[in-house]
């Protein structure tokens, strides 16, 4: 099975304990309904694929993550989105946060403590140094940044600062430091950083180019950070101070 009709691929993750088990988070072709949308899994290194999470014809997969140290526990976010030449319909009942505890075979949608629907785009990130902690950026009418300390069973709104995600359909990305569960970077028009678990945030470095889309923190040396934006690649050797 190929992915010729998957449109946009939001992410690909590989089981750290089993390289034959791979997940493709496919958003789909946002210009039309249907196609290869949702979360797909292979257990044989890509020879065959099974869709394990899907929604309505306008809903694809926007984000997926393993719990660090326990890849049987996963969180995924679905995103209902449709583009037209004259408008963007961002969000709908198909958007949501889902959890699996059996390696992606079965999924349950999470609702408890989360804001009321509809949602738009959602981003998820676990904290490697505190594996049960997960952050969620949710495009919703109430709140923006949410945090759970128990794999998504309960949630707390941490911030409604929309500087964390200025244009949700275009950005909506975050990353947690490998060695500090309270240190979070938010990739938006500006690069934002929180050092208190999302309660407050500040501009990480106003001197670097705007429009941020990718970040990598070295697990062996978290002070070493590579960050991709519309101006190129930025390197920090002091944990993002500059």
UniProtKB/TrEMBL annotation:
Name of the protein described by the UniProt record: Sortilin N-terminal domain-containing protein
Keyword Repeat attributed: yes
GO cellular component, one term: membrane
CDD domains assigned to the protein according to its UniProt record, in alphabetical order: Sialidase_non-viral (cd15482)
InterPro entries from the UniProt entry: Sortilin_N (IPR031778), VPS10-sortilin (IPR050310), WD40/YVTN_repeat-like_dom_sf (IPR015943)
Sortilin N-terminal domain segment(s): 97-203
GO biological processes: post-Golgi vesicle-mediated transport
TM stretches of this protein: none
Presence of the UniProt keyword Cell cycle in the record: no
Gene3D superfamilies: YVTN repeat-like/Quinoprotein amine dehydrogenase
Pfam families noted in UniProt: Sortilin-Vps10
Keywords, alphabetical: Repeat
């Amino acid at each position: 099975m190929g992915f010729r009709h998957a449109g946009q691929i939001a992410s690909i993750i590989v089981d750290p304990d089993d390289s034959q088990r791979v997940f493709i988070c496919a958003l789909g072709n946002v210009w039309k309904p249907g196609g290869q949308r949702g979360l797909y899994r292979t257990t044989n290194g890509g020879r065959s694929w099974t869709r394990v999470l899907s929604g309505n014809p306008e809903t694809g997969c926007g984000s997926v993550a393993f719990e660090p140290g326990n890849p049987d526990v996963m969180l995924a976010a679905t995103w209902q989105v449709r583009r037209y030449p004259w408008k963007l319909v961002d969000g709908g009942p198909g958007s949501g946060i889902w959890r699996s505890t059996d390696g992606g075979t079965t999924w349950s949608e999470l609702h408890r403590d989360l804001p009321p629907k509809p949602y738009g785009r959602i981003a998820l990130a676990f904290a490697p140094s505190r594996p049960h902690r997960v952050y969620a950026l949710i495009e919703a009418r109430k709140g923006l940044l949410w945090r759970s300390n128990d794999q998504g069973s309960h949630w707390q709104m941490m911030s409604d600062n929309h500087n964390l995600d200025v244009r949700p359909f275009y950005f909506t990305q975050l990353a947690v430091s490998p060695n500090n569960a309270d240190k979070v970077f938010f990739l938006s028009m500006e690069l934002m950083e929180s050092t208190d678990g999302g309660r407050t945030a500040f501009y990480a470095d106003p001197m670097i180019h705007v429009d941020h889309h990718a970040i990598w923190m070295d697990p062996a040396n978290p002070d070493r950070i590579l960050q991709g934006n519309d101006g190129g690649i930025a390197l920090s050797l002091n944990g993002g101070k500059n």
